[in-house]
Design a protein that fits this description.
With about 70 residues, the chain is mainly β. Helix content is about 0%, strand content about 55%. It has one domain. Strands 4-3-2-1-6-5 form a six-stranded mixed sheet, with no helix packed on it.
C-alpha cells in the first residue's frame, strides 16, 4: 500500500538519526501529506520531523507499518 492511503496518526517503523548520526528512535508518526511529501515526527520526540514520499510503499504489521 502507499503512504497516502494510511490513516493520520499511524506508526511507521523506521530508524531515524540526526545529522550527527545520533539515533532518534525506531518509529515515526504520520501526520499529513503536503503535496508529494508527508509530514512525520519521531515518536516520543515531536521536535524532530522527517518527510517521506507520498508514494512510499508500506506493509501493515500488527499495529504499525513497515517501509518496503
Amino acid at each position: 500500500m502507499k503512504l497516502y492511503t494510511i490513516p493520520k496518526g499511524s506508526r511507521i517503523k523506521a530508524s531515524t538519526s540526526n545529522d550527527n548520526g545520533d539515533n532518534l528512535g525506531e518509529y515515526i508518526i504520520f501526520h499529513n501529506l503536503d503535496g508529494a511529501y508527508s509530514y512525520c515526527t519521531v515518536e516520543g520526540n515531536e521536535k524532530e520531523s522527517c518527510h517521506l514520499s507520498a508514494n512510499q510503499e508500506l506493509k501493515k504489521t500488527n499495529n504499525y507499518y513497515e517501509l518496503i
